[in-house]
Amino acid sequence: MSRKTKVIAVSGVSGSGKTTVTKCLGDRLRNSESLFFDDYIWKDSPEDLVKWVKEGADYGLWNLEPLVKDVMTFLNTEDPPAYILLDYPFSYKSHEMRELIDLSIYIDTPLDIAMGRRLLRDFSNETAAEIHKDIIFYLEEGRAAYKEMETTIKSDSDYIVDGALPLNRVIELIFSELKARYSEI
Hints:
Elements: E1 6-11, H1 18-28, E2 32-36, H2 49-54, H3 65-75, E3 83-87, H4 95-98, E4 103-108, H5 111-122, H6 128-155, E5 159-162, H7 167-181
Parallel strand pairs: 1-3, 1-4, 2-3, 4-5
């Protein structure tokens, strides 16, 4: 017997719009709960993402127990939500989460747009020197992590949406996909 609650993961590179899309879907879907990857402290998980990618990007090294626990808490409540939305970068790559996810959506955002969004989000109060330093790091080291996501997570997802589209169009496309998959929407 399959569970009624649908767990939907929203994946993509940093700056792709995962958090914004997850929040918008949560506002639009009745009876939903949302969990955000960046709200957690990832103990016993890779601290240096560049090193982690260089060493083979073993997704099994991530201790996702806190997120799994929160998903299970929602699933096991007396009246579980119809949807659990996850702002979660790894799609089906973690064996801990794979069994819980019903649908993985990848926001396919061009890296220049993702970089611009990330700079606006993370560096609004920083000096030009700090922004310059971050761009150099991205070009010399960090881009490999972005490419890992584009290659591995994108191909592992069930539905891919163009992250260069306006937000309202991205939400419309995802919502149409959800309606096609889940008649109760």
